[in-house]
Amino acid sequence: MIPRYARPEMTAIWSQETKFRIWFEIEAHATDALAALGVVPKEAAKTIWEKGGTARFDVDRIDEIERVTKHDVIAFLTHLAEFVGPDSRFVHQGLTSSDVLDTCFSVQLKRAADLLIADVDALLAALKRRAKEHKRTVCIGRSHGIHAEPVTFGLKMAEAYAEFDRCRARLVAAREEIATCAISGAVGTFANIDPRVEIHVAEALGLRPEPVSTQVIPRDRHAMFFATLGVVASSVERLAIEIRHLQRTEVLEAEEYFSPGQKGSSAMPHKRNPVLTENLTGLARVVRAAVTPALEDVALWHERDISHSSVERYIGPDATITLDFALARLTGVVDKLLVYPERMVANMDRLGGLVHSQRILLALTQAGVSREDAYRLVQRNAMKVWESYHHGGSSTVDFLSELLKDPEVRAALSEEEIRDKFDLDYHLKHVETIFARVFGE
Amino acid sequence: MIPRYARPEMTAIWSQETKFRIWFEIEAHATDALAALGVVPKEAAKTIWEKGGTARFDVDRIDEIERVTKHDVIAFLTHLAEFVGPDSRFVHQGLTSSDVLDTCFSVQLKRAADLLIADVDALLAALKRRAKEHKRTVCIGRSHGIHAEPVTFGLKMAEAYAEFDRCRARLVAAREEIATCAISGAVGTFANIDPRVEIHVAEALGLRPEPVSTQVIPRDRHAMFFATLGVVASSVERLAIEIRHLQRTEVLEAEEYFSPGQKGSSAMPHKRNPVLTENLTGLARVVRAAVTPALEDVALWHERDISHSSVERYIGPDATITLDFALARLTGVVDKLLVYPERMVANMDRLGGLVHSQRILLALTQAGVSREDAYRLVQRNAMKVWESYHHGGSSTVDFLSELLKDPEVRAALSEEEIRDKFDLDYHLKHVETIFARVFGE
Amino acid sequence: MIPRYARPEMTAIWSQETKFRIWFEIEAHATDALAALGVVPKEAAKTIWEKGGTARFDVDRIDEIERVTKHDVIAFLTHLAEFVGPDSRFVHQGLTSSDVLDTCFSVQLKRAADLLIADVDALLAALKRRAKEHKRTVCIGRSHGIHAEPVTFGLKMAEAYAEFDRCRARLVAAREEIATCAISGAVGTFANIDPRVEIHVAEALGLRPEPVSTQVIPRDRHAMFFATLGVVASSVERLAIEIRHLQRTEVLEAEEYFSPGQKGSSAMPHKRNPVLTENLTGLARVVRAAVTPALEDVALWHERDISHSSVERYIGPDATITLDFALARLTGVVDKLLVYPERMVANMDRLGGLVHSQRILLALTQAGVSREDAYRLVQRNAMKVWESYHHGGSSTVDFLSELLKDPEVRAALSEEEIRDKFDLDYHLKHVETIFARVFGE
Amino acid sequence: MIPRYARPEMTAIWSQETKFRIWFEIEAHATDALAALGVVPKEAAKTIWEKGGTARFDVDRIDEIERVTKHDVIAFLTHLAEFVGPDSRFVHQGLTSSDVLDTCFSVQLKRAADLLIADVDALLAALKRRAKEHKRTVCIGRSHGIHAEPVTFGLKMAEAYAEFDRCRARLVAAREEIATCAISGAVGTFANIDPRVEIHVAEALGLRPEPVSTQVIPRDRHAMFFATLGVVASSVERLAIEIRHLQRTEVLEAEEYFSPGQKGSSAMPHKRNPVLTENLTGLARVVRAAVTPALEDVALWHERDISHSSVERYIGPDATITLDFALARLTGVVDKLLVYPERMVANMDRLGGLVHSQRILLALTQAGVSREDAYRLVQRNAMKVWESYHHGGSSTVDFLSELLKDPEVRAALSEEEIRDKFDLDYHLKHVETIFARVFGE
SUPFAM superfamilies per the record (chains A, B, C, D) (predicted)? Predict the structure, then answer.
């Protein structure tokens, strides 16, 4: 966890304090269930909640005990006993450490997923707002980085919206994957604990009982969880790279928000760097880095080995904290993104109207010109524009004017017909349809 | 694709012949839709189906044309025209190459997913059969590779069943992810094609229309697909490694099937290597290797760049063909796995009953012996067993006998009480519950 | 292996024919050594070379035998006997299959490394030529995609040269890593084979003896080899992405070579897509995908398990063939790259000279203007230029003219002093130094 | 960074304090060079060393300043000025932030490499000691997890020694890769700084000047560095897994050191878990996780983008700290590993001498028995042993006795000849040769 890429709410999920609080809840709920089954006194279960529920666990004290006992759960239980008193002997009856550890990890991942889903919701709201704002803000669409045909900036936002809407659904599924509880003993046979305890604890914590565990919850669940974070991170990267491209000096169709007084901009006003989205590109790599170790964690030996544990100490906090930060940062970028419609038009115009060459070609053939001749006519005018662009900053030759001046073209098409092919609305006629599909409105 | 790790049905999905057949279907369905919209003659659409539907496309001929045109879709259309005749000019009207290529890829991945799901179904059937067969075949459960408490071999199979049942659900979701169709033109605006064409083609091919495409179907879908294959491969690895462990010479609780006449076994009968499951371990790595490039493919530039294309030429066939092969091989291994209950008992007995030491400890304290004394009593008998094991092949000392001989133990527990703690049924009492959870029966 | 991304020489290394030829050489050299040690008759060793050396091994025949024997090396030896006759019984004496398989893999990887190093040499030659050609072709340097200060196109090529020169050294080291030979028997103890046989075979094949093998050559060597290919692939990606950026419509400072007659360019002359470098971006991902499985192959169980074998059947050919193709394609791209110095100047000029603002700022402070005032003066002129750019295609305001018109600026700096700060040569003064460092000339 | 997997010396390299101290040294050395070139007063350079050299930089104060300036290097320089006074204006003249940041990162990685190399040296010493100690401690060699032929425990250690000796060489090469210095300005042209400054700073810090940088040091160097760590981590994993296998209950040929009084062992003495090596297996995954992001960092845009920066904030400390910890832990494990020669013999004997079946087979054929008959004879005796093992804990039948009892066998071989084939020394005859190769003694 790198503090500068961490937000407090997600970080708190992974604090020692939170962990011990969840451990307490698991133990206390388990004791409730044991009391209901008559295994421990009901009074004891009550006492545990009363005294432990208000206790402020002391992380340093627990660490101190652990240095002696060499066992984290025992250290916690020893500390808990300092609050609860003699009834603490009824805590943890029949449980295995992993019952507590693994169920706690589920709770943490589930809470992390809750935050990530909320993050995506905020991002979706920003994307939707910007999409609608720029529904008909025309800009050039690019394939291979090369001008293709017009799109709108709103369509770009709609595309991102649809992508993150899918990411949301994936996160919901990922949350479902890891929201299970195991209180099943040393090898998962419930030899020393009644399965009804697991059912009770699961329900109390908003989890499902793991159908069959083996001291641990099977790690294919976690692999799926982290793989999903990797996909979401890749979508973050995609939008970040789009913005970085749009902010390039030569393109400059959009810019990360830059407050007027922000230092360093005064003498070199053009030097506004897309540092937030560059940063997001890197953070995406960091989140994705969790995927392979999570996949490697699946094949534990026999009923369990503990190789996954150290991996999860890193990737549990790192991947969720980093993705939470990245999503929030991306939301801020989208929300405040400076959009430059004038420059979008200017960029499109740089090629002097060449983006319409295909439509002219088609119009000529539909007007009865042979395919070969149509090509020749379009080509000779297009090449003039292109040559001019190719040797300077912007084309100084205008495709429309050239076409209007070309007698062979004019023999086939009227000025109105030619001008009509330069109509940008032609490209926008289905924008509403697409928006209806994406936003369902 | 490595022939020895490929099965014909999955391989066929990725053949040139299949690809061209799918291309034809996309084009023919699109022409149908265009005919219905009055853009092309209905008669032409009919002719295309009649003449193209029965045509045997010649891959070499298409390659030959492509060498001239340098464009695969144009090469195909040229070849198609050789069958269809003049009406072929109504094919591909308003479509972009990517409309055909990306939708074809969706169809291929969907079919691949269908096969993988069927593979998992076969594996689930084998696991269920073996689980029920060995529901109460006791073996030692191991944590950290060390004997812990008894489980059953059926429970191991049930665990794998539950895991692959989750994998099945993930594959169904992955199939849903990539089952979309895009017929939306050069930058996804439907500038030259009616969105209803896309809807028609999608329906005809069992796909959904992509809500917003940008010449290409967004690659987060494919990333999720391949990430899911990576998780399934990791589950394959887990079960493969379990079997490899069980087949180790010292363990030998199960063995990959070995036909009596199989070469090389005669003079060294012990040298039966778990080569199938070792192979599966490697194949899992191969399938997982597709995950990272698929994640890196998401962030295409602007409306599209073509960097994903070469990646998908490798991972599309490789990951699906390899996983299909791996699942089938694993099914065969499970189905015919030789299981040795006698050796399971023998292994458990190697430690002379030490696995029951915890229960004795508990019984002593419950009988009023102080925790400290109980420890001492258990320990002094346990250590005799352990020392004997530690210095030889198997323990020659029996924990039960030692306990029965120990007057201090006997002062607290009767012979019957002691023997009762060695009852394996104690550990099996919830097997039915777990089976009910997993198999829902 | 995807034929379209494969070149014949590298592909041949991985053919069955080559493999069997190498197997023969290993066996024949081993027999020579055994003959020298008096273990087998010298005459037999001679016969094997004579009859086997000219034999054309029949892959189909060997496959046929393997279907019966279920063992590839035995199948080959059986086929070899068909050429060699009775003396073939002296072949493979004391060897284990892995001795042949692993040593063969070393030979193949070494040859692959030879080709890759030659590929890099060709790329270096192209880079050096282009670097020198454009040593002083000025273009804007960009950090964060934003104009920074001038560089030259030759410097970009020099940077790539230095990077691939490092890659060359890495490939040489990687070749060294895997160039070892193991003829050490079932568990590497030379129980049934004299270590001198290994020494002889190693020398004959240009390999070193593996100091300690365990039936197999340790896989950390191969991991290092494939990790190195991953680094080289990433350098390919870097240069590919540089070219893609330079070819973007708005930038267009360089273009992949496009033959005048190349189809599709006529009507849309601007639609020249950087498909080769986009393809290289994807191929880099493919090569990198070999790294993780190669790392996972290291931890074989005990003296060996065979999990690495299937992995290597994929990544051995795939990673080397793909990287070979990528390096050759990149060399072609660099060699024939169309470079547009006029557009480089035009792009730099788009910001109306703003790239020199820092130098003016410094000159003002050196002329005694306070830091604060200097900022204010530069800023008010810079902002005019920027505003103009920000709202259109190119700046219509010129920074130099604005400065010359500004009385406060002129009070501190003469026209000559101001003009001097716009001198591009200022930025080129150490180009020779850098070239000397890189090209050592 | 996870405290429990971190050691102080490596952690200190990545502290804020260390970073600022290195920044200071870079700045002070650069100022020295500038003074020597007459750009700044020599007196000032002296003052900077005097006042800054003894200063205790206040991280909180720098953070406080950074919150205002939004720039880390400026914040540091501001703080430095608080110590140095007016002469601080001569610091950082002509430098770019990246000159400081990237060179600092080189220093940190170089120091990290120094520690890792020292770690490997300690590991090598432990391996060598254990190798020599157990040079002739016979144990069974296993391929595929199945008994093959005898090796010695010393050979296992020698193999690991050779592997880590290679790792050492790789780390030395990796250190060389990243030990470069860049003081070259905003786009690497030395426009505002003399190249001799870079040469001086490089020398003073034990680095080489980067031949051509572009504001940043090229990231292929760092990719190679982290890829190397990934390979070393995989070797750690290999040895860790070997030990985990040897400690399995059924095998128990070695055990991680367990202090007699260590808690939890008393009542369940067999439950000594190989938690250190399991942990190492996980840590290897963590270190390897740095490889892919490091490879993805290579392709920065144009002269630089800053996407690598966030990645390196994670993987710089995480990969080096974790690997340092892992190597040290592994050294401890090897150093104190409990080795059980008696159990090694017992395990080998479990198969009643079957490991010698191949030698008997060979002896029979050499004694003139036909290959077919020899097989039959060996097989009928071997199968008795195997059947007995297959149905119980250890074989109760002894291969040697059976052979001696078999009249057909005895017709071909004398008792002495048969017994001779059971001689373990046969397998050890080249142990010295291998040791000489590995340890060069």
Answer: L-aspartase-like
Closest-CA distance of chain D to residue A71, Å: 9
Q: Can C307 be counted among the known catalytic residues?
A: no
What is the rounded CA–CA span in Å between residue C91 and residue C70? 19
Which residue's entry shows tokens 């549990």?
A316
| DSSP string covering B413-431 | S-HHHHHHTT-THHHHTTH
Closest to D167 measured CA to CA, from D2, D331, D332: D331
Lowest mean pLDDT segment, chosen from A364-373, B407-416, C137-146: A364-373
Q: What is the pLDDT along chain D (441 residues), one digit of tens a residue?
A: 899 999 999 999 999 999 999 999 999 999 999 999 999 999 999 999 999 999 999 999 999 999 888 889 999 999 999 999 999 999 999 899 999 999 999 999 999 999 999 999 999 999 999 999 999 999 999 999 999 999 999 999 999 999 999 999 999 999 999 999 999 999 999 999 999 999 999 999 999 999 999 999 999 999 999 999 999 999 999 999 999 999 999 999 999 998 765 654 456 777 899 999 999 999 999 999 999 999 999 999 999 999 999 999 999 999 999 999 999 999 999 999 999 999 999 999 888 899 898 899 889 988 989 888 988 899 899 888 888 888 776 777 889 999 999 999 999 999 999 999 999 999 999 999 999 999 997
- What's the longest Cα–Cα distance across chain B? 103
Active-site residue (options: A97, A234, A265, A388): A265
**Residue whose token pair is 């229309």:** B209
Q: What is the pTM of this model?
A: 0.97
DSSP category for residue B304: B
Question: Nearest 5°: phi and psi at C181?
Answer: -125, 140
- Residues D146, B272: C-beta atoms closer than 8 Å: yes
Question: At how many degrees (to 10) do helices B97-133 and B72-84 cross?
Answer: 100
Single out the residue of B384, B312, B340 nearest to residue B246, CA to CA.
Answer: B340
* Exposure of B171 in the CB half-sphere (CA atoms within 13 A): 28
The answer to whether the CB atoms of D340 and B252 lie below 8 A apart is: no
| Nearest alpha carbon to residue C397 among C407, C406, C388 | C388
Q: Which residue from B minimizes the CA distance to C1?
A: B1
pLDDT for A255-301, tens place per residue? 999 876 565 445 677 789 999 999 999 999 999 999 999 999 999 99
Rama region for D252: left / alpha / beta (φ>0; ψ in -120 to 50; rest)? left
d(CA C314, CA B276): 17
D393 and B244 in contact by Cβ < 8 A?
A: no
Of all residues in chain A, the one with the smallest CA distance to C371 is A267
- Per the DSSP assignment, residues forming a β-bridge with C254 are C339
Which residues in chain B have Cβ-Cβ distances shorter than 8 Å to C311?
282, 285-286
Chains meeting C at 3+ CB pairs closer than 8 A? A, B, D
Name all domains of chain D by residue range, CATH numbers in brackets: 1-93 (1.10.275.10), 96-257+266-350+427-441 (1.20.200.10), 354-421 (1.10.40.30)
> Torsion over CA of A111, A116, A119 and A121, rounded to 10 degrees?
-100
- The three-state secondary structure class of D209 is strand
Six token digits for residue D234: 């995989």
Contact C297, C219 (CB under 8 A): yes
A430: annotated active-site residue: no
- Give the ipTM: 0.96
pLDDT digits (tens, 9 = 90+) for A372-386: 898 889 989 988 888
Closest Cα partner for D202 from D84, D102, D115, D313?
Answer: D102
Which member of B289, B297, B310 has the closest CB to residue C5?
B310
CB contact under 8 A, B146 and D270: yes
Give the closest residue to D304 by CA, choosing from C135, C139, C242, A146. Answer: C242
Paired strand residues for B255: B338
A314–D2: do the CB atoms touch at under 8 Å?
yes
